[in-house]
Amino acid sequence: MNAVITGASKGIGKAIAERLAAEGFNVIICARNTDALAAAKAAIREKNPAVTVIAESVDMGDKAQVMAFAQKIKDTWSTVDILVNNAGIFIPGALHDEADGLLEKLMAVNVYSAYHLTRELLPLMIAQRNGHIFNMCSTASHHAYPNGGSYSITKYALLGFSKNLRRELMPHNVRVTSVSPGPTLTASWDGFEGPPDRMMPPEDIASVVWNAFTLAKQTVVEEIQLRPMLGDI
């Protein structure tokens, strides 16, 4: 079985790629940072020598690179069983004083990348009448909060994309799940001085993704929200 995970050089994406590889999936991962991507590929292969691990350097904010990545996937595999749209950028700020162009930048990475990659890979899933798409949203997809700015706008948009996709793919037997984690111990929180156990480990998000995938084929978990026990930070 084959899985594609974007933004998988670290954090939640890497944890999901590691979990799927451990379950016997071949994985294609991508990220912008070539050094971190190479390290992630090596770590996954070392733990799971029986599976194929392909890593591609991709700027998911660049449509041409996203389309080239999609073509690489289709040239490599005739089927895709899991697509995890995880690539994203978190930049906090207030709408009234954030930098000009920030919304466009965040939309390109957080929303358009998922839109374009999904559209390119959907024909494979529809043809095989099988597949599961996971869109990594956020608790910011559900509730506005101070200093959320353009980031929160993009996460609301990604959740809307997921909901529309779910309705469209019902007759094609392709499942769609929106996963909305709260604060998770990833590089996005570098500089946070609170205790590590105040945030969720990325491996928990990976476990939730795997559990949703392993349900009966007639069962779909449409939306998942996860938060630290003590709530958002």
UniProtKB/TrEMBL annotation:
Keyword Oxidoreductase: yes
Domain of life (superkingdom): Bacteria
GO MF, one annotated term: oxidoreductase activity
Keyword GTP-binding listed: no
Pfam families found in the cross-reference section: adh_short (PF00106)
GO cellular component: membrane
SUPFAM superfamilies: NAD(P)-binding Rossmann-fold domains (SSF51735)
Keywords: Oxidoreductase
Cross-referenced InterPro entries: NAD(P)-bd_dom_sf (IPR036291), Sc_DH/Rdtase_CS (IPR020904), SDR_fam (IPR002347)
Similarity comment: family membership: Belongs to the short-chain dehydrogenases/reductases (SDR) family.
The protein, known as: NADP-dependent 3-hydroxy acid dehydrogenase YdfG
Organism phylogeny: Bacteria, Pseudomonadati, Bacteroidota, Chitinophagia, Chitinophagales
